[in-house]
Recover the amino acids of this structure.
């Protein structure tokens, strides 16, 4: 049955959101995707912070997003927060971890809950919030089987993390047969394929690229940087031609570096104590940096960056010193100053917070392009929230000065909107590259000096075979056409008495 609506859920490390479009809207304009505006303090954003608040019983969902941040801040202010569970930026708990269905994760104060419950509660909130909006706008009953749900995950995640996310979504009330897991850089590539050229940076767009053109999609999110190499196919679809790569070089690491700078300047223990007792002020400072880091551009200006300092920090006593005295006596005395509620930081100090992550991203992309296995790259497309950063954009353009760099106008929504387009037309991704080698455990004719002697077994009908032989079906890096079966192989019983064959797939 054709879905009347397709919903995309981008469950991100730093920010999350949803978008949707109807089949009729998609047929007219695939990029016409409705996205919710989330209301923070005196501003509206197109995604909400990935924060969830759970009541002290550890079982009752309380709030998500900006509401979770604000409610938890109020609990801290009232001294009532210690029994509540507050999780933020917890998606990265699934990256390069040994995933189990009953694994625990820690909240901001070290208390543990089941990870599956925390992920499920968050996805359920996004699902219910979307259904409420659709119901309000459509003014009629929308049946569950009329909605296709597309949940995005990093391409560099292993299969365990992807399966964990799928099961969390199913537990959140999304039917398994109406759920599609989309890879984030693939979704972004699909969206960019539909953007008219005048909307792209420097009037460049994937929509103008001919069949055979190869593009490198760099999804720079809060937690991970996810990179895929795509080729434009004859029918306009995208083919993945190189295995996904990347690392944990996302924008949150820049936030961590900023916090480290504050700790080095004000004293680690003093700043941590301020954070514990003034959570609302700490959240304000992180939000302030989050906004400022998207505009720091040392190429255009060498003026100091001004951060607003909350009253709680400005009024704090640091081991008998006022804040301006602590700053003056710190290693940053010549590069940082404070007056009233304004912290003036030399641009060189701020850009240093970006260096490790930006260098890692640029070096990895440059090395990928230089590899002989990848033919000429026509363009590098930067998407994801971190790609809004001018420092990162400038570093990319400097290093890859002979390549076209495309940054869409709304790079932080490329994955979300692309997920919706992908839900309407999954065939837009026509080929993927296998991350692993797949095969089965079988027995083969025993060969002296080739097979291990301890694996030799005698057949009932005479002769010897080698057990525990890995018989490959798919090799890592192999191109797989979506929807097409791979080469067939035949197997026969090793004993005349066998009535069944068991296949262990590795």
């Amino acid at each position: 049955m054709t879905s009347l609506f397709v919903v995309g859920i981008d469950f991100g490390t730093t920010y999350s959101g949803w978008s949707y479009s109807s089949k009729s809207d998609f047929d007219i304009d695939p990029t016409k995707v409705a996205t919710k505006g989330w209301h923070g303090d005196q501003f509206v954003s197109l995604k909400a912070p990935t924060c969830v608040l759970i009541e002290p019983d550890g079982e009752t969902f309380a709030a998500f997003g900006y509401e979770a941040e604000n409610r938890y801040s109020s609990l801290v202010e009232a001294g009532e927060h210690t029994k509540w569970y507050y999780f933020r930026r917890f998606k990265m708990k699934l990256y390069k971890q040994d995933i189990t269905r009953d694994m625990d994760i820690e909240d901001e104060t070290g208390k543990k809950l089941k990870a599956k419950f925390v992920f499920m509660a968050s996805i359920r909130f996004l699902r219910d919030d979307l259904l409420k909006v659709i119901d309000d706008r459509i003014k009629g009953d929308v049946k569950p089987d009329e909605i296709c749900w597309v949940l995005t995950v990093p391409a560099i995640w292993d299969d365990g993390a992807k399966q964990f996310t799928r099961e969390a979504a199913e537990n959140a009330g999304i039917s398994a047969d109406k759920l599609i897991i989309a890879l984030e850089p693939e979704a972004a590539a699909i969206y960019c394929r539909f953007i008219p050229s005048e909307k792209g940076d420097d009037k460049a767009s994937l929509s103008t690229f001919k069949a055979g053109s190869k593009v490198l999609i760099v999804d720079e999110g809060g937690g991970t940087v996810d990179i895929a190499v795509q080729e434009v196919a004859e029918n306009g679809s995208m083919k993945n031609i190189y295995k996904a790569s990347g690392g944990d070089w996302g924008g949150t690491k820049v936030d961590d570096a900023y916090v480290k700078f504050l700790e080095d300047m004000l004293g680690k223990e003093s700043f941590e104590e301020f954070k514990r007792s003034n959570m609302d002020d700490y959240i304000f400072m992180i939000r302030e940096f989050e906004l400022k880091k998207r505009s720091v551009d040392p190429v255009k200006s060498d003026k100091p960056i001004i951060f607003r300092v909350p009253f709680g920090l400005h009024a704090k006593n640091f081991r008998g010193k006022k804040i301006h005295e602590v700053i003056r006596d710190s290693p940053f005395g010549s590069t940082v100053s404070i007056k009233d509620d304004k912290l003036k930081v030399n641009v060189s100090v701020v850009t240093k917070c970006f260096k490790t992550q930006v260098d890692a991203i640029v070096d990895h992309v440059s090395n990928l392009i230089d590899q002989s296995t990848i033919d000429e790259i026509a363009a590098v497309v930067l998407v994801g929230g971190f790609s809004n950063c001018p420092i990162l954009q400038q570093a990319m353009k400097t290093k890859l000065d002979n390549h076209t760099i495309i940054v869409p106008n709304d790079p932080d929504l490329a994955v979300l909107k692309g997920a919706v387009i992908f839900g309407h037309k999954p065939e837009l991704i026509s080929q993927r590259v296998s991350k692993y080698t797949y095969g089965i455990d079988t027995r083969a004719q025993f060969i002296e000096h080739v097979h291990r002697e301890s694996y030799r077994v005698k057949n009932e009908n005479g002769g010897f075979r080698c057990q525990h032989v890995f018989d490959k079906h798919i090799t890592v890096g192999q191109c797989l056409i979506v929807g097409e079966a791979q080469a067939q192989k035949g197997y026969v019983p090793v004993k005349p008495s066998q009535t069944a064959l068991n296949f262990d797939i590795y």
